[in-house]
Task: inverse folding
């Protein structure tokens, strides 16, 4: 066997290894421009085949205009955030989230589920991240 020359088989093996590494990096950073999936039942954008919440596998490709669940936020924080986002022309939806008992007695609910359009998702996530520091 000549030195420095890879056989055809080991060459393809090497290429496969490199591709595996690259796809791992893409997965970790969430980059790579590969399409995200969207669960219409939960309004969740995910990069996997399955919805992380309901486990549904019939996901469609996410659309820029889809409202996606970002996080659960405090009522007060949610109200403030909505005002701030609207000032920046970013639409958001706040869904009251709380125990059924409280809703039944018409008591104020403690928190919201925050949804924004997919195109704003990264931006709003960044805001939330900064808020937590
Ligand atoms: Zn789901």
Result:
């Amino acid at each position: 066997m000549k030195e420095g020359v890879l056989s055809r088989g080991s060459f393809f093996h090497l290429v496969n290894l490199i591709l595996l590494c690259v796809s791992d990096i893409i997965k970790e950073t969430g980059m790579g421009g590969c399409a995200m999936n969207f669960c219409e039942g939960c309004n969740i954008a995910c990069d996997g085949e399955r919805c992380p919440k309901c486990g549904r596998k019939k996901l469609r490709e996410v659309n820029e205009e889809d409202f996606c669940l970002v996080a659960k936020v405090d009522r007060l924080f949610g109200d403030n955030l909505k005002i701030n986002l609207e000032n920046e022309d970013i639409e958001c939806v706040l869904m009251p989230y709380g125990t059924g008992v409280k809703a039944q007695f018409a008591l104020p609910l403690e928190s919201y589920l925050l949804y924004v359009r997919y195109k704003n998702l990264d931006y709003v996530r960044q805001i939330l991240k900064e808020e937590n520091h």
